[in-house]
Automatic annotation (TrEMBL):
Domain UvrD-like helicase ATP-binding intervals: 10-244
Organism annotation: Paractinoplanes bogorensis
Domain UvrD-like helicase C-terminal as annotated: residue spans: 245-513
Source taxonomy: Bacteria, Bacillati, Actinomycetota, Actinomycetes, Micromonosporales
Binding site for ATP: 31-38
Keyword rRNA processing: no
Catalytic activity: ATP + H2O = ADP + phosphate + H(+); Couples ATP hydrolysis with the unwinding of duplex DNA by translocating in the 3'-5' direction
Name of this chain's protein: DNA 3'-5' helicase
Membrane spanning residue stretches: none
Amino acid sequence: MEEVGTGLLDRLDAMQRVAASAPGGPLLIVAGPGTGKTRTLTHRIAYLCAELGVFPHRCLAITFTRRAAGELRERLDALLGDVAEDITVGTFHSVGLAILKDNARAAGLGAHWRIADEGERDEAREQAGDDDHAYRKLLRQQDLVDLDDLISLPVALLRDEPALVEKYRKRWQWIFVDEYQDVDETQYELLRLLSPPDGNLCAIGDPDQAIYSFRGADVKYFLRFNEDFEQARLVRLTRNYRSSAPILAAAVQAIAPSSLVNGRRLDPARLDPEAPLVGRYPAASVADEADFVVRTIDDLVGGLSHRSLDSGRVDSRSVAAGNLSFSDIAVLYRTDSQSGAIVEALSRAGVPVQKRSHNRLRDRAGVQVIARELRHAGGLGGSLAARVKLTAQVLAQRFAAPTLDGEQVTPEDIWTAADLLRPLAQRIGDDMPRFLQEIATGAEVDALDPRAEAVNLLTLHAAKGLEFPVVFLVGCEDGLLPLRWPGASEASVAETIAEERRLFFVGLTRAQDRLYVTHAARRFRHGSEREQTPTPFLDVIDSGLFERLGDVVPARPKDRQLRLL
Ligand code: ATP
Ligand code: MG
């Protein structure tokens, strides 16, 4: 822990310091990737509490994923020590849940209400047909709520009860929201109820990284912040501490045609004249693309021959002999279906991989089964250890069968859900209901272990907010990134392309030291092998920023015939 109060702002640059020490009232921090948003946010909270006498229990910090919430919590603990415990840190869902818990009866819920699991949700949905109203009525009859209810029920409640609004506005006088560009309408309404128009609401984010409109997020709430919250102060952070200058220049050029930020600026804090250019590899095929990734990783970690092939594990000393370890490397792709070829090639070469998909944890069949078992075991009482043991036994028995209740369960599911290897078990403590709720409200699989000695495989959506020394962005092809769905309406095309370009921008800006972009000349898509062209997103980047690796001329069937002739 740092010495509280002294030099809290010393580790921030001038603009970060302005943001962190701004007085109360609405505050919007517009900040590009790698400009230190989380750092600034946590230091602001710490500064307010340690220097300005704001009570930690009056503070509410909201993020979108449990992982991000956990990170905020850790950094606040480090800055403030024990005091940080009194700060409410959570996701929108967990904040909604807390409000609902305190007011269940007023919200029309019975004594035994709980969050429906996926099976229960499906059953009620099936009965209700397409009728959302009927579906909710069915849930309520069984005293169940779903995830949307966790936010919409508190919103409805607060709208009807001005006294309750007052109570919560008094309770949380300081509200902080990270990634504000990704709020949806209901979350926005909740914030409007929790914070008066002139309240101490601090929102931080980057409109150019808004990538969740497909699930209802709308960047307009970010863009009109200063209309909704009176006399909002605006601070911009423009210094990027993450990426080398060539990587940052490429990213800035890539976003330019779709940027939502007036006068967007992003200046490199890193000015190493030796920084390598962005590697660009035109692959002949998907297999060739995967081989390139393997070969390059081989070079980077100083020769894969050091690995122990038997165990598939890597001797950490041999990895250290190269300058990088596998965990410093990420392979990013637009759709999960692209990961197969990469996983296969890396695994064949003996490279350990860990994959993080954006599938919601709670939606995974295996997790559902495990949660059900845990709930059952929980009903039996006894200590956490006893319950976990019992659950493990039940699962071990059932595991002998290929499926559980017709649902496939993998060992990975078990570890993901119970996480008995890792700190989650500690967090569960003896609070089983809370653990189950965490599973139910977890926005995504948070299973990526930064310490695992493995190459990280992620979708672009899942990579948001993360950083890696080495990034491969594969499949930079027209139709794949931007992704085009067959039958997409003309009207939606322009907006879709803008959002896909933001996704491309998110991908490029994950890289710290080395960035590689690849595209394959041929790929199996929509049921047949197709010829692919590089994404037009690459065309707006100055070719001087690329180092062209390999020189594969895409072999068209026609060319081949010509050569034969
Ligand atoms: P993103 O939009 O991708 O989520 P971000 O704005 O949240 O990015 P951070 O992840 O907080 O950025 O910071 C990026 C990197 O820059 C981190 O490694 C962080 O430690 C470093 N950094 C931020 N501010 C400073 C600073 N003032 N001095 C040195 N390093 C800094
Ligand atoms: Mg961030």
